[in-house]
Amino acid sequence: MKAYATRFEANPDRWLFLTGTKKEIAALAIDSLKLTAIEKKAEEREDPADLFIHSTILVVVDKQGRLRGIFETEGADIDPARERNAVLATVKQLERE
Questions:
Q1: Residue in 22, 90, 20 with CA at minimum distance from that of residue 62
Q2: How far apart are CA 54 and CA 6, in angstroms?
């Protein structure tokens, strides 16, 4: 997650990225956020980081743990630029709070 944060120049004083054991992350994704997360079999992985079959939905959660946005990231009717702008608008709103 540190490499991911560095890649996007995330300020560590403002951003926390989800981390934990595979079991903890899967439980949060499936039980709390109702997203799909299924561990891939080793022989199906395309690279060492390819661990899960997961939802293409991006969620934004505030520091109180409240769901603040749900965004589709793939699909025939998805406009990536529009979705990116919507995500950024949600994050900027959270920064103002």
A1: 90
A2: 23
Alpha-carbon distance of 84 to 40, in angstroms, equals 28
Q: How far is residue 87 from each of residues 9, 17, 20, 37, 64, measured CA to CA in Å?
A: 16, 16, 24, 21, 18
Distance CA 70, CA 58 (A): 6
Residue 91's CB: how many other CB atoms inside 10 A? 15
Which tokens is 4 given? 């991911």
Query: Which pLDDT score, from 0 to 100, does residue 1 have?
Result: 67
For the chain, report the end-to-end CA distance as a whole number of angstroms.
25
Which residues of the chain fall below pLDDT 50?
none
Between CA 10 and CA 2 the distance in angstroms is 9
What is the Cα 68 distance to its own chain's centre? 13
